[in-house]
Amino acid sequence: MSLTLRIWRQNGPTAKGKMVTYKVTDISPDMSFLEMLDVLNEQLIVQGDDPVAFDHDCREGICGMCGVMINGEAHGPQQTTTCQLHMRSFKDGDKIDIEPWRASPFPVIKDLAVDRRALDRIIQAGGYISVATGTAPEAHSTPVPKKDSDAAFDAATCIGCGACVAACPNASSMLFTAAKVTHLGLLPQGQPERNDRVVNMVAQQDREGFGGCTNIGECSHACPKGISMETISRLNHDLLGALRAGARPKS
Amino acid sequence: MPLDLFTVGEPIADTKAPMDVPIGERWSERKFRGRLVNPANRRKMTIIVVGTGLAGGSAAATLGEAGYKVKSFWYQDSPRRAHSVAAQGGINAAKNYRNDGDSVHRLFYDTVKGGDFRSRENNVHRLAEVSVNIIDQCVAQGVPFAREYGGLLDNRSFGGTQVSRTFYARGQTGQQLLYGAYQALERQIAAGNVEQHARTEMLDLIMVDGRARGIVARDLVTGEISSHFADAVVLATGGYGNVFYLSTNAKGSNATAIWRAHKRGAYFANPCYTQIHPTCIPVKGDYQSKLTLMSESLRNDGRVWVPKERGDERDPREIPENERDYYLERIYPSFGNLVPRDIASRQAKNVCDEGRGVGPGGLGVYLDFAEAIERLGRPAVEAKYGNLFDMYAQITGEDPYSVPMRIYPAVHYTMGGLWVDYDLQSSIPGMFVIGEANFSDHGANRLGASALMQGLADGYFVLPSTITEYLADGPFPKVDDSHPAAVEALQGVRAQTRKLLDINGTRSPASFHRELGRLMWDLCGMERSEESLRKALDRIPEIRQEFWTNLRVTGDEGSFNQTLEHAGRVADFIELAELMCVDALHRNESCGGHFRAESQTPEGEALRDDENFAYVAAWEWTPEGQPPVLHREDLEYEYVHLAQRSYK
């Protein structure tokens, strides 16, 4: 099939960007969306033009490195990662707009690649269990109810791609933070730090400039791993409890 | 064996494992005899760790906790993206929670045998010992392993063993283990013990007075090339499967760090040992950029077949039973569809070579669930394999419940890597290599669920205990940018970067990478022969020549330039490919993932030659135009007796 692509080109974080139109032909419906961009870039390199920068790595939907807005939707029309979206979701002659994640805490590096290190800083604020190597007790010393363990796993599948932020009208990172708060908060090992974790992670996302959550739900709808809105309820519940118990964020 | 392609140097040996005590006591004894570094001195020492997968992430976190100053480097935006994240199946540990006769010794035995007797007994035994601590550590970190209704951990069985010792987190075990290590690492970053260098790629090793003292790295965002110094350098940069272009590795996975260290004097061990996984989704077209693995567990219920006639292009559902060849069941009546990875892969290749392959290009075989659906009912098959069927449907656009899946083998893991001793130190003092980047534990074939075990064993438990012996002599004299060795390394990297940009030819890095990969797959892939390898060795220098005269890299070095990154990696893959072929040619036997056509039993199975090849081939780099030097490390088997594997 043949397609018209309108792609956001921006030379650097402070450069002015614009949409540029490209045509690609002989696109197979079996190609992944990123393979379609590979075809375009191959053409551009041979012509001596600057190829379109985009992030990607595992190309099997698990590393969370890829992600662009496709016709205004994070990761495109299907609930999957951009690398797992295939061109059979489009028709011959389609016009496709491709843009980077848009959120001020995610500055553009170049073209479609953005800097998502703000998400790592939210983890640094408390998204862990403090257990130094070699200090762990025997694994079977603490049984975990299967239902809790399964729910913790569901939340833990978040790949940190940032689609939730990109999809949210407020550019809120609430689903990302809530997934980690839920994962660790459901496990017995996560209890001692539960109050501090939630207040510090929430404070960090505010410091990064992510917007507030108004329970719109675009995040969960765009999430390639289907992280549920229930995690946000759990975060709010934990946050309230932690504040009542006197937990305060580190300054 | 013709010696025109290499020369033979002095043999080498590990001198660190205490051989005067029984194997079960060697690791404890080594830790006792090794010198320690007291906490006040640790603060004075810097350790560079390159890579943040299971090995690098766990090592950087643990060394940070111990009080060293750690500098951590990775090429992605976040350490959580390292390709360990993609491992599906599980992690082995000798916990014996099933009470099914498992033990440290049995895990040790299975791993040595599974490696087709080409690994070092001492290292493998230590791996088995440490495996139990890994599970404790990960559970304490909050890794959500699968559990039973009683709240205790669940296990499953995996290829090559008769016990259930594999711990798992649905089909995303690697992801969950990596996030455990990632979170531990982020905690150390927040504590100020680990300095982070995101989107930064190591491009050379800095050696001072015969020791590894730093690296030259390029900031991939700004393009700045700079030096970083330390008392020791740890490489945890993964395997080199992307030499084949198409593999199950991530697109960015590369050999540059280990290859540049090799060129600085680190020996490269067993480069020809490559694992080819039998159940991957086949190639669709020339644009294909990577291959996706489908869990091996599918072979528990799926039946593998091809048409009996060549070139049979009928819809598989219209091919009657008596015109199908269930070749694994036919050739291996007792193991059937459950033969080990190397055998399943090679037989798929054989039937496709006969012209009986299916799908585009004839490079595929059917994995058929019709019988399983009839026997168990669709809901049962869905419950067992639903997520895999969905993934297959997503990628191929076909419904595997109604049409047989098509699968084909793909490059998955490299057992070879930089040579290390029992302390995981390379042949360069002060440079340590951990995880898939080293050669140490899997011999010629890795068993399922062992890669995650090795990465975490090395990073959490082995390296932090052994590196102290080296650091006890430190801190070493201060080195900075003005040192001649640093200046030389930095200028070398700048010159190579400039050179790649100045060629200004007509072909992209990807086109060379694809050409090299196809050549390696055809001539140094699932089956190698003297003829094919010689052909590859004639052809690779021609590709290299064309690469350095006809490459086109757009943009400049002073900015985010993914084409430039790729070009540098392809340059190294080309050189490594040549060494892989030399190693494959010199090893005139078949073992594990290395199948030489000349060395097979009358039934066509791999035939080892223990008399002549029971050694590790550690290669020393020599400047271009001179053949590499082979150093042999003899392998001795005190505890596991050499035997031929059979699955008939």
How would you explain this protein's 3D organization?
- The complex is a heterodimer of chains A (about 250) and B (about 650).
- Chain A is an alpha+beta fold and about 250 residues long.
- Chain A has helices at about 35-45, 115-125, 145-155, 165, 175-185, 195-210, 220, 230-245; strands at about 5-10, 20-25, 70, 75, 95-100, 110, 115.
- Chain A has 2 domains: about 5-110, Beta-grasp domain (Ubiquitin-like (UB roll)), CATH 3.10.20; about 120-245, Alpha-helical ferredoxin (Fumarate Reductase Iron-sulfur Protein, Chain B, domain 2).
- In chain A, the strands form 2 sheets. Chain A has a 5-stranded mixed sheet.
- In chain A, helix 3 (about 145-155) packs antiparallel against helix 5.
- Chain A starts with a strand and ends in a 7-residue tail after the last helix.
- Among the domains of chain B are: about 275-410, Succinate dehydrogenase/fumarate reductase flavoprotein, catalytic domain (Flavocytochrome C3, Chain A, domain 1), CATH 3.90.700; about 485-605, Fumarate reductase/succinate dehydrogenase flavoprotein-like, C-terminal domain (Methane Monooxygenase Hydroxylase, Chain G, domain 1), CATH 1.20.58.100.
- In chain B, the strands form 5 sheets. In chain B, strands 1-21-20-12-18 form a 5-stranded mixed sheet.
- In chain B, a hairpin with a 2-residue loop joins strand 8 and strand 9 (about 210-220).
- The model of chain B has no long low-confidence stretch (mean pLDDT about 95).
- The chains are: A alpha+beta (about 250), B alpha+beta (about 650).
- Chains A and B meet through helix 1, helix 2 and helix 3 of A and helix 3, helix 5, helix 6, helix 11 and helix 12 of B.
